Amino acid sequence: MEAHFADEFEHLTHAALDALPDDLRKEMSNVELVIEDEPPPGQPLLGLYQGIPLTRRGAYYAGALPDKITIYRGPLERLYGHDSELLARQVKRVVLHEIAHHFGISDERLVELDRY
Question: How far is CA 32 from CA 28, 53, 64, 84, 101, in A?
Fold first, then answer.
């Protein structure tokens, strides 16, 4: 992948994070956002949240490795890369979707909220 396109995708990903309201962004805790080229083989994913949601962290949550939000560049660019504005919207949608999981919001609840 050309460095320019990789830089642009990284910019889109971080712009989506920066678009969060400040108070919400400040509530995010012990989470890392990474970009990978492709999801694991056989998994048709655009993004993935791995960790312990904020709603499930108790008094004994300490010293844990950071949660990980992974955004998969390849599938997003293949699906939406033909239109830069559409790509930006979809990257933002996926980033926000995975952040919702960090806050303990399930896929089912996101469907209920019409945010899936």
Answer: 10, 13, 12, 25, 13
Q: Which two tokens stand for residue 42?
A: 């056989």
Alpha helices in the chain (DSSP H): 3-18, 22-27, 73-80, 84-102, 107-112
Instruction: Please tell me the pTM assigned to this model.
Output: 0.85
Supply 82's token pair: 């033909």
**55 burial type by CB count under 10 A (0-12 exposed, 13-18 middle, 19+ buried):** exposed
Give me the phi and psi of 68, to 5 degrees please: -130, 125
> Tell me: the pLDDT tens digits for 5-49?
678 899 999 999 998 888 888 888 888 999 999 999 999 999 999
Amino acid at 59: A
Instruction: Spell out a b/e string for 3-23, using b for 16 or more CB atoms within 10 Å of the CB, else e.
Output: eeeeeebeebbeebbeeeeee
> How far is it, in rounded angstroms, from Cα 34 to Cα 47?
10
